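Hey team,

Filing this mostly as a record. A colleague (T.K.) asked me to run one chain through the structure pipeline before their review meeting, and I want the input and output archived in the tracker in case anyone asks later how it was produced. No errors, nothing strange. Just documentation.

Input sequence:
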Amino acid sequence: MQRTHGHERPRAVVTPLISVSTVVQPHEDPSRVVEAVKAMFSDWIPDVIPSNTDFPNDRSAVMMTGSSESLDTLLEATKNQRILDTALDAMTMELDGGSTGFSLSRQAALAGKASFVISERAMGGEIRVGLTGDGLAGWLEQRTSHAGRDSVPRSVGDGLAMTDEGEPVEWFNREGNRTIGED
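Output structure:
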């Protein structure tokens, strides 16, 4: 049985509503921007795709918004990169009840990698993801779970999350012992 540190897990876990948006700048190729988003959210269909024109042009920045049914590709990338705890932290930094939001690097997504944008603008643009649903904290804990949590349990709001600047609060060795905040 997995420890929850006082957080109740929802009995029926339902995939949250997932909104995905990005901004296409005048100098960017809209088809490459769509390709980058679809690398993480293959079912994403933007509400608008600006036409590709030669640069310089008079096109303004355009927000493309759509939805997705799944975070599976993103979560698989975080699993393969061994950053599931980082993913949990980044995806819950803005958690407020049943909603949260986070940003991903579009450039990393195009390469099939998950890179969370914490404080600065990402070179190559950002993908903004919004999640809304009941029991969201428990759902994210469950979807980012891994065997390492047997020795170092993690949960939303446990005091081990990274700082707002993306810095670690604590590191643990292979035996599950603290290495930064040792008493």
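Quick notes for T.K.: Residues 17-50+59-145 form a domain with the 50s Ribosomal Protein L5; Chain: A, fold (CATH 3.30.1440.10). The longest helix spans residues 30-40.
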